[in-house]
Write a structure and sequence with these properties.
Layout lengths: L3 H30 L3 H4 L1 H20 L5 H21 L3 H28 L6 H29 L2 H22 L11 H6 L4 H21 L2 H9 L6 H23 L3 H22 L3 H16 L2 H11 L5 H30 L3 H26 L3 H7 L12
Keywords: Cell membrane, Membrane, Transmembrane, Transmembrane helix
Subcellular location: Cell membrane
Pfam families: MFS_1
Length: 402
């Protein structure tokens, strides 16, 4: 694998750290600014919404900029956002800093996926994408716990200063190691937008929303679930999240390896197994050892879907994949927000802290159904209406004009 992938992974590590570390520092931030913890939660919500909006926006703005230069500009934006957060005099300014940093997130992973895939042979593309995403998964194992520890003992402002420094390292790595890739000829915004007319691209994005949403339906509420149901102490939640992160690292690498060999079968296995494991979590959450094993499996199976889904989007949006790739990153965050909201609804309805696991299992199962539909559609070589028409009582396909 080229050294350029290491530079992309370092940038991904910084982005992953800043996205998730705030969850462990909300009490300290809320106390310093004199706001409630739920109000401080806007720092999480604002970041997620910034990713969803920023992914297509920044990618569109960068359509006329060479990809290496755009990656450097995005890392610069990330550094500025974290520095603003580190020195924010009032809460509102911190929210602004978080949003600035989030605008770089989706476009960095979207453009970075395209660049990573172009750096290697065709049969190694998913592995290259997985290597870049390793930075994001390792952030959950190392960056987030370490950033939380620094924030709790030295101050949360120091944490964001360190993250900004990581951004500087990532920027330097990209400048030094990523080659100047020629901008595709005759690819304009209209070509990028045309990818969204492809049903396969839309199905892959829907699988992203539902599949990864299934993971976060459970993980969002892991703290109350593990302390109230499994009987873990409050301090154990950090290490359970590390376990989840280790699962993510392994699943990401496995998903990248096997997606290059058999992409759709890899999705069938990972999504099907994820649905089963999430459903079983309703039972295993009552036992400490079983719960810990299940959490690691959820991380592994959930992130095993990421390289194949990202590669699926790149393959189906061939020729103009950058915008579709970036929007698919936003789809991950949309799935996170949707599943967290649905999980909160079932808890509020009185179904208990394990109820979000059923929500997650349902979402993952729905993603599996879409994966099967996508394969059927691809084999028949038609549109979605072609597949539906094939199931009419007459057994005859309705003519479809392309």
């Amino acid at each position: 694998m080229p050294l350029a992938l290491l530079a992309l992974a370092i940038g991904a590590f910084g982005i992953g750290t800043t996205e998730f570390v705030i969850m462990g520092l909300l009490p300290e931030v809320a106390s310093d600014f004199g706001v409630s913890v739920p109000t401080a939660g806007l720092l999480v919500t604002g970041y997620a919404l910034g990713v969803v909006i920023g992914a297509p926006l920044m990618t569109v703005l960068g359509t006329k900029v060479p990809r290496k230069r755009m990656l450097m500009l995005l890392m610069g934006l990330f550094i500025i956002g974290n520095l603003v957060s580190a020195v924010a005099p009032v809460f509102a300014v911190m929210v602004i800093g978080r949003v600035i940093a989030s605008l770089a997130h989706g476009a960095f992973f979207g453009i970075g996926s395209v660049v990573a895939a172009e750096l290697v042979a065709p049969h190694k593309k998913a592995g290259a994408i997985a290597m870049m995403f390793t930075g994001l998964t390792v952030a959950n194992v190392v960056g987030v716990p370490l950033g939380t520890l620094i924030g709790q003992h030295v101050g949360w402002r120091v944490t964001f200063g360190v993250v900004a420094a990581l951004g500087v390292v990532g920027l330097a790595g990209i400048a030094k190691l990523v080659p100047e890739l020629p901008k595709p000829e005759d690819v304009h915004l209209r070509h990028e937008l045309a990818a969204f007319k492809n049903a396969q691209v839309l199905l892959a994005m829907a699988m992203t929303v539902l599949g990864f949403g299934g993971v976060f339906a459970a993980i969002t509420y892991i703290a109350p679930m593990m302390t109230h149901i499994a009987g873990f102490a409050d301090g154990s939640v950090t290490w359970l999240l590390v376990l989840f992160g280790l699962g993510m690292v392994g699943g990401n690498l496995i998903g990248g390896k096997f997606a290059d060999r058999a992409l759709m079968p890899m999705l069938y296995v990972s999504l099907g197994a994820l649905a089963v494991v999430l459903a079983l979590f309703t039972l295993t959450a009552h036992n400490k050892i079983a719960a810990a094993v299940t959490i690691a499996l959820i991380g592994a199976l959930g992130f095993a879907t990421v390289p194949p889904l990202q590669k699926r989007v790149l393959d189906q949006a061939h020729g103009a994949p950058t915008l579709a790739s970036a929007v698919n990153i936003g789809a991950f965050n949309l799935g996170n927000a949707l599943s967290a909201w649905l999980g909160g609804i079932v808890i509020a309805a009185g179904f208990g802290y394990t109820a979000p696991n059923w929500v997650g299992a349902t979402l993952a199962a729905a993603a599996l159904v879409l994966a099967v539909l996508s394969s059927v559609l691809e084999r028949r070589g038609g549109t979605l209406s072609t597949v539906i028409a094939a199931g009419t009582p007459t057994g005859q396909q309705t003519p479809v004009h392309h």
